[in-house]
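Everyone, study these two lines:
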Amino acid sequence: MAQAGFCLACTVFLFLPSLVFSQSNDREKFIDELLSRMTLEEKAGQMTQLTVEVILKTHDGKPIEPYEVDPVKLKEAISTYKVGSILNVGGNAQSLTSWQKRLEDIQQTALNERLRIPVLYGIDAIHGNNYCTDAVLFPQQIAMAATFNNELMRKASEAAAYETRACFIPWTFSPVLDLGRNPVWPRLWETFGEDPFLTSEMGKASIEGFEGSGREDAVVTGSGNNSRILGKYQVASCLKHFLGYSFPLSGHDRTPAWIPERELREYFLPSFEAAIKQGAKTVMVNSGEINGTPVHCNKYILTDLLKKELKFDGLVVTDWQDIKYLYQRHKVAKDNKEAIALAVNAGIDMSMVPDDYSFTTGLIELVKEGRVPVTRINDAVRRILRVKYYAGLFANPVGKKEDFPLFNSPEHNRLSYEAAAESIILLKNSNSLLPLPSGKKILVTGPAAHSMRALNGGWSRNWQGDNSDVTEKDKHTILEALQERFKNDVLYAEGSGFDEARDLNEVREKAAEAAIIVLCLGESSYTEGFGNISDLTLPEAQLDLARTVAALGKPVVLVLAEGRPRIISSVEPSMSAVVLACLPGNSGGDAIADVLTGQVNPSGRLPYTYPRHPNGLINYYHKYTESVGFSPNGYHPQWEFGHGLSYTSFHYTNLRLSSGHLSGSGKITVSVDVTNTGKMTGKEAVLMYVSDLVASVAPEVKRLRGYRKIELLPGQTKTVSFVIGKDLIAFVNSALKKVTEPGSFKVSVGGLSQEFIYQ
């Protein structure tokens, strides 16, 4: 075929010549004209999203590798059922050229239809374009949160968008803005941690990286943001999962949550609200239920709150098969048609069906029966077309292959390493054991030592990331990275599996030759229900290995590679140093090794509270009644949110406020001087907390209200400033209104504090 980027775009331009893109055209006029020409069948098709397996060539029921589109199946989807969206979840990663060919085939078929509406293809590119074999894998979201570096987050998302768009894919199901408050929940590692402010700021940075902010690579048509089109290196983001998905009562994925609306608005809503203000155009819905009502049929949450109150004008897509689950799992509908009616009338715009046409045919019947109004259908389709316009699909359904020279480039790989290096957290370093000395024998042991799965986690070349040890064999595990740096001074014994005991005699024998032991424990890859557990405590096989090496009387460096904080309180006292790696990605082995050897000065901080006991799951922004002073069994974690050590030392002085009083629309500037008093250049995340000392709703002990990452040379001092306005210190009261009440507040930074009054 002719050059795809030219040919397919020209095909679109043949449609409605009066609406060819120009500076004088308005997006909504374009959409209204297109909508007026659509049949009910075409509208129902636009609201349908299928998994790609439906249109692939298969053998014995499984897709043929490498993937190849079956033209007969594709024509059925596009021509017969008018399907408007396809997604990718199952199966293994494919090559860049395979992806490009697939998208060309899909779009060419769509553009041969009467209205020539391009297909919106979506993918879970959550830490890089992980379904493409050669794309760069970055740290997972929880690791990016540990950097406390918004600019790194923006750059990583920008690179991920570039490599996703290189596959001609315009839509990523990212970022996850769920609040990681419950560490038992298996998707905690997909979040930015437990804090609403950190989640909001990281989310905004990620969206800016995916979608840009009107820079030179963005094409703008029409007037203002109303007609903006994403640039060729950008993708539309998708906010997951609206709302309250991450806090199931059991801690198990997709099980019921009980969250009062005040709590929902105070803690779980802010990240989504900030992202919508940032301009995000798509939202994916919580698969679970809140207070007895599945969110997929909750009109209050999807329409009244999201679309009306937050003024969200983009599309709302279901999660996997969740309309069917309304009758199959939740039992709030008697059959598929009733489930469709409940969901669409509640505010669902697109159904991730995902593998048949039951939604399409059922929706058409419901409209004809008068059970779903045409106005609701038109609103949904208008939102879908708006996103397709925004993604630039009407102008360029696919890209040009030669436009992506930075795919898997040294620049992107270097960025992956830098992000991984800043995400590593030094939790403990007794007697300055780290950095490791050279010239001494080191025993490396533990199930995470020689595992890429433990570094990448789920959504890595496939859904569960269970083939990372094969697909990423050219990358360094922790063991391989240490072997490269210490050569023959590294000894290795597996010690244990993640859940299974191994023969410990080899560990004892090799430890006899070593001066220091590096013990690598943690978790293998998982996501969603496959990661459900009943006990946060690290498996006994690993704890037994820890006790075995501790009993040898040699210094032990514990390296944790895990997606959530697994409890280690029974063995932590016998560890000389503890390093935490929160799924740092393909560069994680090298980053960990460089932290252990001192080539990198660690600067990561905990984005969640690390619990000491299985039932001690109290967040750092707890209430005063949860404090140790109130109860001997109160807040007493292994390590607090924001904890993280360095190989240098930082001293905070001269905390000052520009005023002791705040009122109305005024602002207070908070400044503090930070000095590197050690002998090594280091990066420091400066965290500002604010405490509301008296409030009509019992206040938290403190809340993060600002942070900034800085780098200091030995002896260097920098002044870090934050701005506080009334909105920053507001809270949701018992009437569900966001208010700032008059009274006293305390600002805390680096162990220093000052008070001010709001009136």
